Amino acid sequence: MGVYCIRLNILLIISFVFISCESNEENNNDNIDNDFYSNNVAAFYSHYSGTDNILSVYLEFLDVLDINSITGVIIHDEQILHEFTLVALDVNANVFIYEEILAGDILSDNIYLYNMDINISFTDESNYSFSSELTTPIDPEIIDYNIPAVFQLDSTNWKVLSINLEAKDLNGFSNIESARYQIKSTLLNGCDTDCIINDNCNEDIIGEEYVSDETWIFDYIESTTDSTYFYSEEILIRPLDGSALYDNEGNIIFNAADCGRTGIVEFKLIVVDKDGLIDEIDSILMEITQ
Question: Domain ends where: 135, 150, 182?
């Protein structure tokens, strides 16, 4: 693939996020000259991937300007950590980009917020500068959860098990990819009844691995702070008599079983962000009783 095609691909990928990036940039930078910025800048975007240490910076103008150079610096605690130069795209003279792999020790894993200063030097020797915030990927964190230690089955009716999770992500709610759960059947007791549906219903079920399903996803409820988020999920639990579950129109949702099993299950809670970072808590025991 030629340089032209590579740059065109970069342009198309980054332009996909113009709308969100542009509004955030203008709202978050009080020191930007609003007249120049709003009259000349179409979009500004910066991103650092902690997975491969790639820094990407994108700046697009509304029209062609007489620009000599565009440089940038990343600063923390008044110390310059990295300097770079944006280059104009051949396919669009309004667009300037920078994308490079940084050495692993330039940006710290323990710092998620840096200042980025952009300086535009014009051919008439005048200059214009603005500042932006650069956030680096921070691991999401499960800070609280609520799963009952004991859950009692109803004799004939399905019940709802409610579980909750609170997660923290300093990169913002939009950076969370999913909050989900898995379940291990540590020991589910065999049915104390004649086996009609499953010939092996009297045997205990002992699971060695966690299992999951694509539908086992927590629902987002609310933001408890600007970086912590509350999730909840409702799980339908079969009654002791093993009854089927029907919807309001009489259609079967879950078929009948020989019984609703008692025993011990384990939950694993998993939060994944869009940078591929994960936090999880496992071995959360819950006893199912009759």
Answer: 135
